[in-house]
């Protein structure tokens, strides 16, 4: 992983239902299959599996923290206790090596966020720092494509003496799933003013959220938008040193996923360097961005140690990228 630009990206409400619910899956599955082909054509490979989230339908930060720390964090008291301590997260392990610059792109954060220090982020860009001049899309402060373009402008596209480890939160698939942004040419993103007409032309939350059919349809479209924004970014701005891990934080609420849905979310790793995926060949993950029904299902809290074991100096030996004592 040395020398690689690492992106850990959470897609809001991207759950197993997006891939398996018959009312949602056709469009999402087509998007994932097409994205896999597009990546392959550009020299990237990918593998995917399932993680069982610590939260369901909301409280995204519990999923983020569980994934990054390797601890099961399923309530607010647990979250406060963990983030007040010094437990090693994936991002902090990279920071600790001194070989990466660590940054957070947090469009959903609208005020001070002291957890950035806990996560070992050298700099956090919240919604106020990303330069967005366009309208909100219901809960989401800005479209995912804009947030990614801001990441390119502020960090990834600059000359650096270190590679990046970036935590990026994409919010366009947050309920109520209306209005949904449209994908536009990257050259037109600008300061986000272009989204004013797009937002006005979109569906109204009240017309979508209370309709059981429409809400599933629009949820699926929002996931397609988020996945396409992310993969488009990798194809346009990524290179041979790009490594992307992306996943859902939790399933959408029961209005969309149903009363008996699992807590599983998809997770995928994308890399141009074949050696990156060779390190996880023993995981048994499926090829491509869309995990199958029989792909491995792990607790979300198990990912940190598996990841650090795979990519530490001694693969399988339990050593994190930071130092032998990093995992605590």
TrEMBL record:
Q: Which residues form the Sulfatase N-terminal domain?
A: 34-252
Matching InterPro entries, A to Z?
A: Alkaline_phosphatase_core_sf, Sulfatase_N
Q: Which domain of life is it from?
A: Bacteria
Output the Pfam families linked to this UniProt entry.
Answer: Sulfatase
SUPFAM superfamilies in UniProt:
Alkaline phosphatase-like (SSF53649)
This chain belongs to the protein called: Sulfatase N-terminal domain-containing protein
The record lists the organism as: Streptomyces violaceusniger
């Amino acid at each position: 992983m040395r020398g690689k630009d690492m992106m850990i990206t959470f897609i809001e409400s991207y759950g197993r239902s997006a891939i398996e619910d018959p009312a949602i899956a056709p469009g999402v599955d087509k998007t994932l299959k097409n994205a896999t082909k597009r990546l392959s054509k550009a020299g990237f490979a990918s593998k995917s599996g399932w993680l069982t989230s610590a939260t369901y339908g909301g409280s995204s930060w519990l999923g983020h923290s569980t994934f990054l720390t390797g601890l099961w964090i399923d309530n607010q008291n647990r979250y406060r206790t963990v983030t007040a301590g010094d437990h090693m997260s994936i991002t902090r392990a990279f920071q600790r090596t001194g070989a990466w610059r660590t940054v957070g792109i947090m469009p959903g954060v609208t005020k001070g966020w002291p957890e950035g220090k806990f996560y070992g982020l050298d700099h956090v860009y919240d919604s106020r720092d990303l330069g967005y001049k366009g309208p909100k899309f219901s809960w989401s402060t800005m479209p995912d494509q804009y947030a990614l373009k801001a990441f390119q402008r502020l960090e990834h596209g600059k000359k650096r003496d270190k590679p990046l480890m970036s935590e990026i939160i994409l919010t366009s698939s947050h309920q109520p799933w209306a209005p949904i942004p449209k994908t536009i040419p990257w050259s037109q993103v600008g300061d986000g003013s272009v989204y004013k007409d797009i937002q006005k032309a979109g569906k109204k939350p009240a017309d979508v959220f209370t309709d059981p059919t429409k809400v599933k349809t629009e949820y699926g479209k929002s996931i397609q938008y988020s996945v396409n924004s992310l993969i488009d970014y990798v194809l346009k701005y990524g290179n041979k040193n790009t490594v992307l891990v992306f996943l859902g934080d939790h399933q959408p609420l029961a209005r969309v996923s149903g009363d008996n849905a699992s807590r599983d979310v998809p997770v995928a790793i994308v890399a141009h360097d074949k050696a990156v995926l060779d390190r996880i060949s023993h995981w048994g993950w499926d090829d491509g961005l869309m995990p199958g029904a029989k792909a491995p299902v792990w607790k979300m809290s198990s990912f940190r140690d598996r990841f650090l074991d795979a990519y530490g100096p001694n693969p399988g030996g339990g050593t994190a990228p930071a130092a032998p004592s990093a995992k605590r």
